[in-house]
């Protein structure tokens, strides 16, 4: 279970460097993965972003120190990375619902977050319908945007991108070109491993000469293809969580770190029986 071990190394690194300026690249390096894949995995497993977790842990430690030691609020604020007492107080009240000065007077309950530990539970795991396939490189056409990983911009902006193409007719134009073996609209995520951004495509599998859309070649890969059944986006989100919390830790595979695909066939995505797929590039654990 080296995948689980790697994630725990990253969590331990965060805890050991809580008072330092933490960069997602360095955190991800502890888990032998890219910033994007670590942040994505973390958010799926914990239902919070990496930035939120670090902020919660710092404010937890700050609250404990305020309640137990005779330190000035401004000193605690600076210690935990806040430039002004005002900024610290605002963040502190958002988490704990009381001010730092009230903690010093022992009034109110605190919202404390303990360090995370990764555990794998095998009992009661839902069966996951999936296949492992090898596929040669193939072409997709579509439109793309680049998103920063800073402040979780990618998580906020990609849903807006989908709303845009659904409303302006782009989806219909793309689907009219879909002549490849993978049927439906594709959400294609390309990870820039050495940069703080990703490239996200909304596209279709298209075999032929260039069109009015941009073209990208998806590299030959071994894919774990997961079946998803249910209303969007809940069913897709649930399956991603299963993949990272249940399948990867026990499968003998790890993420290959290359392009990911979400496949959305034509149909009503609000139906409880809507069928879609997640394609994850994988390699065997060493």
TrEMBL record:
PROSITE patterns: HTH_ARAC_FAMILY_2 (PS01124). The keyword rRNA-binding does not apply. This is AraC family transcriptional regulator. Residues 8-106 form the HTH araC/xylS-type domain. It holds the Pfam family HTH_18. It comes from Cytobacillus stercorigallinarum. Coiled coil: none annotated. SMART domains: AraC_E_bind, HTH_ARAC. Keywords: DNA-binding, Transcription, Transcription regulation. The keyword Metal-binding does not apply. It comes from the Bacteria. InterPro entries: AraC_E-bd, Cass2, Homeodomain-like_sf, HTH_AraC, MarA-like, Reg_factor_effector_dom_sf.
């Amino acid at each position: 279970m080296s995948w689980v071990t790697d994630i725990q190394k990253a969590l331990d690194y965060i805890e050991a460097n809580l008072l330092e300026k933490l960069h997602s690249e360095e955190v991800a390096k502890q888990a032998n993965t890219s910033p994007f894949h670590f942040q994505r995995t973390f958010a799926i497993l914990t239902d919070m972003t990496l930035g939120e977790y670090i902020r919660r842990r710092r404010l937890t430690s700050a609250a404990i120190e305020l309640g137990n030691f005779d330190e000035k609020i401004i000193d605690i604020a600076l210690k935990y990375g806040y430039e002004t007492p005002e900024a610290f107080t605002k963040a502190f009240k958002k988490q704990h619902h009381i001010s730092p000065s009230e903690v010093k007077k022992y009034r109110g309950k605190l919202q404390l977050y303990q360090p995370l530990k990764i555990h794998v539970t095998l009992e009661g795991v839902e069966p996951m319908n999936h296949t492992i396939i090898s596929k040669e490189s193939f072409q997709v056409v579509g439109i793309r945007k680049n998103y920063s990983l800073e402040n979780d911009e990618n998580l906020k902006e990609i849903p807006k991108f989908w709303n845009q193409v659904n409303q302006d007719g782009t989806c219909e134009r793309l689907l009219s070109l879909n002549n490849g073996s993978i049927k439906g609209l594709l959400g294609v995520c390309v990870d820039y491993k050495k940069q703080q951004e990703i490239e996200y495509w909304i596209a279709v599998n298209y075999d032929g000469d260039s069109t009015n859309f941009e073209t990208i070649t998806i590299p030959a890969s071994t894919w774990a293809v997961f079946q998803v059944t249910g209303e969007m986006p809940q069913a897709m989100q649930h399956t991603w969580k299963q993949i990272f919390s249940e399948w990867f830790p026990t499968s003998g595979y790890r993420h290959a770190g290359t392009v990911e695909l979400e496949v959305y066939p034509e149909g009503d995505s609000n139906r409880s029986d809507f069928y879609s797929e997640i394609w994850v590039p994988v390699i065997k654990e060493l």
